[in-house]
Automatic annotation (TrEMBL), chain B:
Stretches assigned to the DUF112 domain: 20-441
Name of this chain's protein: Tripartite tricarboxylate transporter permease
Record's keyword annotation contains Transmembrane: yes
Keyword terms: Membrane, Transmembrane, Transmembrane helix
Organism: Siccirubricoccus deserti
PANTHER family with a match to the protein in the record: TRICARBOXYLIC TRANSPORT PROTEIN (PTHR35342:SF5)
Taxonomic lineage of the native organism: Bacteria, Pseudomonadati, Pseudomonadota, Alphaproteobacteria, Acetobacterales
Domain of life where this protein originates: Bacteria
């Protein structure tokens, strides 16, 4: 969203001295050869291992693709093997970099990151899970409205009633927009059916 | 078809009421999403892909191109008034633009950005009109082997040349390639990489992945790092540019445009490099009294040049997309998948088989440019008001659109699980500085590259040396190797005095 690019601009300002000549002088540790000790290499190591596991899964899946003898030359397995090999190599490279101190400490955004906001994160995840649980039984608008209220709360909104009203209007408008204008087939849930009955339209 | 005849045909189609309507809608939507932090053109076009089932191809692509161009205009507004660039191409605009806004000159900054965007867009579109047919001529001579090499070059440049680290860029690309492999192999009908899950036989939808990375992942990341507090939107003030502003902007507009367009055309893609180069050029060329303003009160040259370069590069991206079928940005990749859903394959044959469509599209770009400068200058107050949508409701709203865009694909909760799963990966990609665009590009371009490779190998009867014995193919491959190696070597050489891990 907004911050990735902002972060890049910060990095850029650092890498190209003319933009902010004063910066490097103030923060010599940024270009130091070794990471400050307060940075753990564990997170970076997990990333490297994750990519290695991904490569392993890809290799296993590539090996289990059935091959018919007609396509002996360039069958359906060639590229999957290549991608798996690539992922294993890259995962190995990332693990290697992680073991040598990792890269997170070079990222300015990580250096001055605020602490993890568990409240916001858990409210947001709760919103996503609520959506998953409700959308099948109660339809899009009901589920997405619950999600909207929880997500807004995650980002610090405290006006529950106003958010609920907004959520209902927005989700219904979006549903009608997608179904009527774009012709997307999304079954009517409880809320949509109520509105459809109220305006006397047929169920799409 | 020669460009003049093509444009005549194109304008005769583009100036109908319906197509003008699509262009206007696209420009409006594009500016709005460009202004809103959190939504970009790639996400918007991905969410609007269902349009392709309802509307004929010309209308849909005019809409998409309007969004594409509009987002470039809108991005500058966010950079200037909020100091948070909405698109990667606007990073540099934020440097001087935000400083101008802080010293009460937001209006002229917005005006020079809009007019610069118009000039650059027009030059870029002229470039597309006249360069496109030439590239097509050349492209028609390429066989599958050359195409495959060209796609490899594209892979390298979009993932390894730009951004912080080749290792992380390539990892993103390979994640995209892996996602692109999931599903039935088109040539043999064998299921691949499905883990035995029947829902994955149809493959993973690119809309789902784009929405997961650009909307869900980013929102999750922002919640992770959320700090209460509100952002400050600067007042616009008078947008009139003084005579001195005009004089100082004129050179940067044209230099920026001429600098940006070639960068967009080359598969190096991306708008970050040309905007940066333009910024440093203007900084160097500025008269001493203007140089004082750089980095302090904000110099208008530093807005005019990069903003022009940004738009010209964005226009340039359409050249490889339309003539070669090679997407070099996430937005172009999504547009390519829109072409595919019409059963149209962008590439050299597009100009021959779909001449009317292509030229109408190009003509619409001229139209969109005019509309955008009109929409952006007098209506800038409206766009500034959009910026005042509070964060909680904005992100909650983005997730509502993400949900319907994904759920609408097949009404499947499995898709939503996949959406959130990839979203979590996207969140960690943000945290660990993995670029997301290569995932989408790899997903779209990967299957095309595989097809070209297997065609080439079928022609050569399984002889892998075909890629290095054909001179053009070899040349392109060498270029790819150079693109991968040269910046590293150069960087290592530059860093000699202060060695440190990459």
């Amino acid at each position: 969203m907004t911050t990735p690019v902002e972060r890049k601009s910060k990095q850029r300002g650092q890498r190209y001295k003319p933009a902010r000549p004063a910066r490097k002088a103030q923060q010599p540790e940024v270009i130091a050869a070794t990471p400050p000790t307060r940075f753990s290499i564990l997170p970076d190591l997990w990333v490297g291992l994750f990519v290695l596991v991904l490569g392993g899964v890809a290799l296993w899946q590539a090996g289990s693709i059935p091959v018919s003898p007609i396509y002996a030359q360039v069958g359906p397995r060639a590229v999957p093997y290549g991608v798996a090999a690539g992922l294993l190599l890259l995962g190995g490279g990332l693990t290697y970099v992680a073991l040598r101190g990792g890269w997170s400490w070079t990222l300015e955004e990580v250096q001055d990151a605020p602490p993890t906001n568990w409240k916001a994160l858990s409210l947001l995840v709760a919103g996503l899970l609520a959506n998953l649980a409700l959308i099948g039984a109660y339809g899009f608008s009901a589920a997405a409205s619950v999600q909207f209220v929880l997500v807004a709360a995650a980002f610090g909104s405290r006006r529950l009633v106003r958010d609920m009203a907004l959520a209902l209007v927005l989700t219904l408008a979006v549903w009608f927009g997608f179904v009527e204008l774009l012709g997307v087939n999304i079954g009517a849930g409880v809320l949509e059916a109520m509105v459809l009955r109220a305006v006397g339209w047929e169920m799409p | 078809m020669d460009p003049i005849a093509g444009l005549q045909l194109g304008f005769s189609h583009a100036l109908t009421a319906t197509n003008l309507g699509w262009a206007l809608l696209g420009c409006f939507l594009g500016t709005a999403v460009g202004v809103l932090p959190g939504i970009g053109p790639a996400l918007t076009i991905a969410l609007l892909l269902p349009v392709t089932f309802q509307v004929e191809a010309t209308g849909a692509f005019i809409l998409f191109c309007g969004i594409f161009y509009g987002a470039m205009y809108g991005g500058s507004t966010t950079s200037i008034l909020l100091n948070t660039p909405g698109e990667s191409g606007s990073i540099i605009t934020a440097l001087e633009g935000a400083k101008m806004a802080r010293s009460g000159r937001a209006g002229p900054a917005l005006a020079t950005a809009a007019i610069g965007s118009f000039i650059a867009g027009t030059i870029g579109t002229l470039g597309i009109s006249f360069l496109g047919p030439i590239v097509v001529e050349l492209a028609l001579k390429l066989g599958p082997a050359e195409y495959f090499s060209l796609m490899l070059l594209c892979f390298v440049t979009v993932s390894a040349v730009l951004g912080g680290s080749a290792l992380r860029g390539l990892t993103s690309l390979f994640l995209g390639l892996l996602l692109g492999l999931i599903g039935i192999d088109l040539q043999t009908g064998q299921p691949r990489m499905t883990l035995g899950v029947p829902e994955l036989l149809d493959g993973v939808n690119v809309v789902l992945v784009a929405v997961a990375l650009f909307a869900v992942g980013e929102t999750l990341f922002l919640a992770w790092r959320h700090v209460e507090g509100s952002r400050q939107v600067r007042a616009v003030g008078r947008i009139m540019m003084s005579r001195a502003d005009w004089r100082r902007s004129l050179g940067p507009w044209f230099r920026g445009s001429l600098l940006g367009f070639p960068f967009g055309v080359m598969p190096a893609g991306g708008t970050e490099m040309p905007t940066m180069l333009s910024y440093y050029t203007e900084r160097k060329l500025a008269p001493p009294e203007a140089q004082q303003e750089f980095g302090t009160t904000g110099a208008i040259e530093g807005v005019a040049g990069p903003e022009a370069a940004n738009n010209a590069a964005a226009a340039g991206v359409l050249v490889p997309m339309l003539t070669l079928g090679l997407p070099t940005s996430a937005t172009a990749a999504i547009m390519l998948s829109a072409f595919q859903s019409y059963g149209i394959n962008p590439g050299p044959l597009l100009f021959e088989q779909q001449g009317a469509l292509v030229w109408t599209l190009i003509a619409s770009l001229y139209v969109a440019n005019v509309m955008l400068v009109v929409l952006n200058l007098p209506l800038v107050g409206l766009w500034a008001r959009i910026l005042k949508i509070p964060q909680p409701q904005l992100y909650a709203g983005i997730l509502v659109f993400a949900t319907i865009g994904t759920y609408g694909i097949s009404n499947s909760v499995t898709d939503l699980v996949l959406l959130y799963g990839i979203g979590v990966i996207g969140m960690f990609m943000r945290r660990f500085d993995f670029p997301t665009a290569p995932v989408v590009i790899g997903m779209i371009l990967g299957p095309m590259a595989e097809q070209a490779m297997r065609q080439a190998l079928t022609i050569s009867q399984g002889d892998w040396t075909t890629f290095v014995t054909r001179p053009v193919s070899l040349a392109i491959l060498l270029l790819a190797v150079a693109a991968l190696a040269v910046p590293r070597i150069y960087g290592a050489w530059m860093r000699r005095p202060v060695p440190g891990p990459g």
